Fold these 4 entries.
Entry 1:
Amino acid sequence: MWDKLYKKSNCYWGLTPSEKLVQYLSLIPKGKILDIGAGEGRNALFLAKHGFEVLCLDVSKVAAEKCKKLAKKLNVSVEYEVRDIREFSSKLCKFSGIICNGVLPFMKKSQSKKVIEKIKEWLVPKGLIFIVVFTTEDPLYKTYLEEGLKETENDTFLDPKIGDYFCFFQKGELRKSFSNYNIIHYAEKYFLDKYHGKPHYHGMARIVAKKQNKSDSRLLTAGMTTYSVIPVQTGI
């Protein structure tokens, strides 16, 4: 599926990095970044240009090759592994930042929860996570119900068109998963997807959060926290 999509254009997702990654770049401690579902490298290449060591993960060989070529052209270095995050292990390496934009929906809900726990384990204290998921406000969720698709588990459907599972998060669920983190940004909103097919909307939840030392638990109610439900937003 993904190899076919990445063959369709020179850069399927474009090269503009995620808005919140740019906004909060200065808060990421220097170190190694894990970019889950890195694609052609729009975020990884941006981070590499700013001096970060980056490990990219993606299931697409086509995306990996395109990212490597772009990195060479830009004279930056990124490490790339063609691997499913569900099969990835990082016992020896910790990360100062972890990006996981739009990856968790493409699996069972139970699997996405396990990946979130892995992300927490892999992140260093003071490290930042950037995660985007789809919510039950997504029109696709309603479409599945209207078409009579049965949930295979909570908020999870087997999509016959992609031949794989697709899951959604309830309102506030992603934020609750990081309740012991310092929430820097949290928003649930709609965004306009112009990347594939006709322009269409998705309901999404996005979080930027910092892992705290145990001694810093008192700071969890402080810091920069934003919450918004915005009708229309382009890009993630």
Entry 2:
Amino acid sequence: MRHVNYSVLEKPIGFENYNTVLEKSADYENYRAILEKSIGYADYHALIEQLLAQSHYLSLKSVEDDTHDTRLTLIRMERLDKTARMTAHTRLRIAAIHTPMIWLTLTEAWCGDAAQIVPTIQKMASLNDKIEHRLVFRDQHPELMDAFLTNGTRSVPLTIILEKKTLKVLGHWGPRPRELQSFVLDNLQELSKIEDEQDYKMRNTEFWTKVQRWYAKDKTYSTQKEFLDVLKKA
């Protein structure tokens, strides 16, 4: 098993010298500092394996439940690594990019959406050697996450597109395709009305199973299309 340095998870980068959170259009040294703490996809994959082997993950709120979710993440990532196919349109569009970029993805190992999205973003990035895909953990970088909230929530995964030379933010995408996002928000609202704990657990499990089935049926096509739309505007 490949071993990864735990220093990437030690603590959030300090922002003591700044009075505000990162701005989406910001172009300054904080992004460089964050990138120094980031890891590549292979190390991200290896880190998940390592943490599961040690039954230890710094971001876990509920160790048993989140360890289970993290194990599912690893299984789904490995499946997509083997089976996800980039469309001809995706290949052409990505190959046409001439500006060196860094795609910086905020993620968490237990996240079911990240299991589906992160491997897809990685496959897209791998189509052009001018693109570098780096990953950081959301809970280790709250200031960065808070600059890219989704409806006021710290939703992941979320990929920030940076111009490599200037670290200027060119765009961002996440946490999931629009059609699925609408389905998720509607169902979370309904779930919030359920008072019985057992009923909530049952319906919540059913709901997230439907989310994963949506991803399986979609075969990453919506993620590819929507991410390309953001790149077009970059």
Entry 3:
Amino acid sequence: MNNYLQLQNPCQKPAMATRIHGWRHTLLVVALTVLGLATSLSDSVASPVLDGHTQISTAVHDFIAGHYPDAVQLSEGNAAATSGRRVEIDVPRLDPRLSIQSCQMPLQVRLNQNQTPLGKISVRVDCQDAAPWSRYIPASVRVYQQVVFSARPLTRGSVIAVTDLQVSEVDIASVRGSWLADTDMAVGKEVRRTLPSGVAITAEALTEQELIARGQTVVLTAQKGTVLIRQQGVALQAGESGKQISVRNSNSGRVVQAVVTGPGEVEVLF
């Protein structure tokens, strides 16, 4: 019996080792498979594939926001607490019945010709992958900015003082013309037409203050080198600072061209 056992033992040990090695190999393969599956799932969670509708909304929003890099994006909680220029972008949800395939390339977004990203706009979105498509997407853009308004009625020809103005935040899409962001841009200017109280002051509504009236007696200055001559003249035109007008020299009767340099003063052009 002992001899028989001694003969069998050398054979049994390698078989047992082989089975153990096989189980270890199987466990290793299973572990690697599980790890690979986990990595694959992790990658899929980290990089979700956006559907066509979400791709379009995100692309349009980012495109418009890119035109206002210094503005604060309005959202619930910061709209009332933030000062300065602010922008609110509304891209309506697309009809869920509309079938739009997700694009495998970055979407191309552009405005229609001669359009600015302000107010109600239409944006073209293009997908240029193997199955290209195009869509026109409506959007609404509201940009809130400090704008200069009249604090009281202003009559035509009146010169604006700082007390005539107030600054209020407004959606600039609602203001027609070239609105002003600072009162310094309006103070000292002359009103072209009568303005009621509470309206936005625009560049088109103002002109430089008239320093010389037509028919007014003016000081006519002529300088060449170190020689300076002052004579009296009569303005044949009204003019503001820097404007060229015709002036008749009271001594010679000659009509010369001169530039308005101040109230009642002009300088002859050579």
Entry 4:
Amino acid sequence: MIFLHFVVVLTLSVYEYALYITLYFNFNYNSIFMYILRESVRKEIKSELRSLFDRVIKKFSEKDFWDPERYKLERPFHSSLITVDFWISPKFERSFTTSLGQTVYERVAKCIASQFADKAENKKRIERHISTGELNTIQTILNELDLSTEETKEKGLERKPNWKKEIEEVLQSKTDEQVRTVVIMDLYFRRNEKEYFFEIKSSKPNKDQSKVSKEKMLKLQAMYNGKVNTYFAFPDNPYLKRELYALNIIR
């Protein structure tokens, strides 16, 4: 630990080092939840998180990550209103959040699942047949959710998210013609002979990401004839309550 911080001091400015210390030590490895996990699992999680911090700090220390003079040229209005040093914080936050969302959430989830499940995998590939009727219905559902407008609301034609109803619609549209289909899910685990599939995204995914994830989940329901556990998982909910969550397509 001492060696690690000595290296950091050599490579980062005083401001950057202060930020590193805040990140590194404010992450509470000793939460109650961590005590539930086996020592080997805790070590895996710590390794993932330390790797994340190392990657972010390395990127943050690169000269082209933050160039105040260039920022003044790129955003003259912003930098004239507020001191240019202020804008480094949002840039760092975006970089850190992006790094978390790319792989860390799903890897940590797999570490945790491995203790309680018979089998756990990231990027699980599922290849099965789905009928053309079901595939067409899935696209119709997604398009109608995506294209709801004020006009459709006024006419009472707006499609509102209803997971159970959507699954029923897909299964009822089954036809004889079958298509070999592949789905890759962020996390899979099997426990007590039951299978669970998860799409794991940051708490505010964009509409396209949400649409792709919902498409995968509906395809899995078609593959398993509605007898499978599929979830869209977030690390947190910035809206605090499920009913207040703003992205309708995934509710």
